[in-house]
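name: query_chain
kind: protein
chains: 1
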Amino acid sequence: MLLRSITKHVKDQNWFAVALDFLIVVAGILIAFQVTNWNEARQNKVIANEYLFRIQNDLILNQKDMEVRQQYFETVKAHALHAIEAIDGPPEALGQQFISDSWFATFALRRTIVRESFEELLSVGAMNNVTDVSARQRIAQYYRSTEGTQFFLTNIPPYRELLRGVLPYEVQAALRKAGCTGSYNMDAAGSPTAIIHNDCQLKLTDAQISDAIEKLNTPEFRFALNIRLADIDTKLLLIGTINNRAQNLYEYLEEVK
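structure:
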């Protein structure tokens, strides 16, 4: 219809009307282009908010995981402290409890930090959909920092291998049979769990106790146990740092969504 109008005005040499028709065409194209941009911007905003929401959920999971790790390693540290205090005490006081404490001090938690939503955000190229530059920087910095600390959180120092290398296998088997183990799972809400079953009732013979203590009560073992304590302290420090960073990022994303 607009084309007919333009053709008629040209035939009539009504140049003012022709110019007006062209202005209408140009305006229509510009409006359509702008509407397309608005729709695209709105869609990008929806996509960005969806990823921010998912990242926030991951941050909540990470915080819960850090709380579990903190309780876990505080328990491990308590056993390590008891073991080293026993070594530094009178030799005749060393017994079954010392063996149990030394055993629990080897426990490790090697699961990774949740970052699936962030990885997907990068893989689909949707990072630029997050228009807040500071939000993009904070997200990237958080995950860079967690990647850098992942090694220290999952690292197992030589103490574990040393103990499990010198402690007689029959004693290790007795520890496991008595339930002196750990369990790692998810609760009903999907949050990670980690439990150390240190209420187990270990029953060893006098000969087994004597043999185990002889293997463990050495300068080399004490040295490795001391390093293990330093390792646990580092883990606890990093856990607190990651937890705080996750909370700060969560709160900032809540503001910019």
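note: Residues 2-256 form one domain.
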